[in-house]
């Protein structure tokens, strides 16, 4: 089957697809807000081992993801364009240092900021404008990584 995407790039979703994506994003934002996953206080409780709330929330997300990935691998699922969905295993490196280092850096940032990247948009949408600084910093860090990626060890 021929690739429906334009040569050299990805196809862009149509207006109806964008409405669907926006609805899914809004639903996810509501779930995160109602579950208090975006609460600075809940995040601080988690990092201080004062409450099980966030551990239960994250544990249920990990369990859901594990079951979903298992079902995707066993079912032979295909994307909308008919291509098979292939989930590659993580590269096993000695000690898997880069995963530990990346996870530690992410966790330290999450603990200091009280938010991870996804909820920044929800917090900004809720009027917590101080997180605009964090969003700009996250975007600058992503840009910097993109510029330096070819020079970094992978």
Give an account of the 3D structure.
- The two termini are 34 Å apart.
- Helices cover 62% and strands 0% of the residues.
- The protein has a domain at 15-51 and 89-151.
- With 154 residues, the chain is mostly helical.
- The longest helix is centred in the middle third of the chain and has 23 residues, at 53-75.
- It has six helices and no strands.
- Helix 5 (117-125) runs antiparallel to helix 6 (131-148).
- Inertia-based shape: globular
- Separation, N- and C-terminal Cα atoms: 34 Å
Average predicted local confidence, pLDDT: 84
**SSE arrangement, N to C:** HHHHHH
- The number of E-state strands comes to 0
Summarize this entry quickly.
This protein is mainly alpha-helical and about 150 residues long. The protein has helices spanning about 15-35, 40-45, 55-75, 95-115, 115-125, 130-150. The protein has a domain at about 15-50 and about 90-150.
Topology of helices and strands:
Layout: H1 15-34, H2 40-47, H3 53-75, H4 97-113, H5 117-125, H6 131-148
